[in-house]
Design a protein that fits this description.
By secondary structure, the chain is α/β, with parallel strands linked by helices. Helices cover 37% and strands 27% of the residues. The strands form 2 sheets. The chain has a 5-stranded parallel beta sheet, with helices on both faces. The chain has a 4-stranded antiparallel beta sheet with strand order 2-1-4-5, with helices on one face. Strand 1 and strand 2 form a beta hairpin. It is globular. The two termini are 20 Å apart. The model has no long low-confidence stretch (mean pLDDT 96). The structure holds adenosine-5'-diphosphate.
Amino acid sequence: MIHLSDIHKSYTVHKTTIPALRGVDMSIVQGEIFGVIGHSGAGKSTLIRLINLLERPTQGSITVGGENILAFDDRALRNFRRKVGMIFQHFNLLSSKTVADNVSFPIRIAGEKDEKKINARVDELLALVGLSSHKLKYPKQLSGGEKQRVGIARALANGPHILLCDEATSALDPQTTRSILQLLREINEKLKLTIVLITHEMDVIRTICDRVAVI
Ligand code: ADP
């Protein structure tokens, strides 16, 4: 369970305070696909980035699995972040690395050194997202949908409990969007993964979300 309680977040730019979130309360149940929809500037990105503490709230509390994540020290925070995967609108792949190296990147960062284990894990992840035959390609040799599949494989590399999706299908055509949403649904069911997605598209919400918050 992810609980956000009375969350406020404001940014300070040139001594001016910009409020982004004011008094948000939200509970997300383990294993569900939870959507957040709203117009541009409504605070969706800010909200999703609070869940892995890429942003810290100005006020309010956040608990995940009963733990107060705002009180984590650096080490606890690193461990926690490994269990929260994230995918992005523009995929954020490393263009100079192959598909396999993009996917293995977080596994290496987490300290795994056994090449055999890394390779086996990469194969497993690429099979899961349907990209086994693209292992040695570079991002520029892939379609948008394939790039997002690499993003998903990379996000799942360290076995997260939560997957955050920041406008993950907004750069894709409708047919590719459907196939990516179907993949997310399959992953949700197979891995019992909690998925939090933000979008400005009602169709995305209708297609896969169990519950939705409007912001
Ligand atoms: P959305 O994802 O719904 O488009 P955001 O969370 O990106 O909304 O933005 C909410 C508000 O916070 C906007 O007014 C935006 O300009 C502001 N904002 C977001 N990120 C920053 C930042 N890093 N610095 C200053 N203002 C920001």
